[in-house]
Structure formats: structure tokens, C-alpha cells
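Section 5.1 Outputs to date
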Amino acid sequence: MDYKKVNAYIEGLYTKKKQFQKQYLQDTELEEYGQVIDDDVARMLQVLILSARPQRVLEIGTSVGYSTVMMANAIKQYGGKITTIELDEETARQARINFERQGVDELIEIIVGDARTIVAGMRQKFDFIFQDVGEKSLYVKMIDDYLALLNTGGILAAEDVLFPVFDFNDDDSYLKPMQKSLDMFNKKISECSQFESTLLPIGDGLIVAVKKY
């Protein structure tokens, strides 16, 4: 199978959604911010949300809010709320502007601060957790927190999990230390008796795990 042709065909089907992402980033005034999810991951998040219909969504790593908005566009079709955590105050400010521009700000609560500290202090349960925090070492460190916060039948989705098999160039050398941590995360999730999971080769790798009944 020619995977380049397959990918080109799939992306050709969703040109309008890719244009939305392009326009979203063009409208973002902040010049420097964390990388946002690829369009295929955004589509998968919307499919997962519309099928599972989570009432409470937790996002770890807001950036400028593209993934948050895509999830909110799905949630608003049936009702629900998103709590999203962003470390950087200036990036969070831009995300708030973007939420208002897209008309989904009333669905989203944004918390600024260190994700591990904030999550450790949470007592509220969630039906869906999406992790795309820039500090990838947090992935494996927070698995127990996610198990505690997820309702039974809840979904954990984590982006960038195929970093362990990427060959990074010198310009991306800062990503290399993250590979070991993400490999540990993938193995722990795949072997965890409390999760049923799969790793999808979309974006930079998306792992989807359901907390078992």
C-alpha cells in the first residue's frame, strides 16, 4: 500500500477543515506558541466526543486553543463543559480571545498554572481527558492522576505518542529526551489492566484508552 497516496486521498476529503485550521492560526495574534494538533487528530477528537458524549472534558495543554475549540464545537451539539490547563499566561490570554472569536467561550474554563499541581488537587470526575502538554515527561507521571479522575467508561486520549520512533534532526534535538518518557507512557498504557487502548498513527501519534468497567 502506498501510504503517501492514502494520506493524500484522505486529506483531500477534508480540505474545508484544513482551511479552518489555517484561518484559525492566521487570526491568532500571538507570534510564538506551542504547536497545535494536526487536522486528522482534531477530526478524531470530534468523532470520539460525539460518540461518547462526555459531559465533562479535561484538556492538559491548551496552547492557543485550537484543539479546545474543535472539541467545544462537538460538545455544543449536545451540551457539556471543557476545563483546559495552560502553563503560560500570555498563551492562555490568546486562547481566551480565540474562544470568544469562535463563540465557544461559555463552554470552556481555562486554568493557568502547572498541570501536575492542578490535576493533583482536582476532586471533580471527568468523562474525557485529552493530553497534549508540551512537557512530555508529564505523560507517564500523570497516569495515576488520570485513572483517579476518569469516570468508569471514560476516555483518555494523548497526542505525540509516536515520538519514540521519530528521527529528529539537529533543530529538533530538544525533543529527543522526550522519546524515552513517551515510550514508557505508551508501554504503561498498553499494559495497564484498567485501560483498553489502541495507538493510532495519525498526527504525531494518538493513543486512545477507555477506563474499563
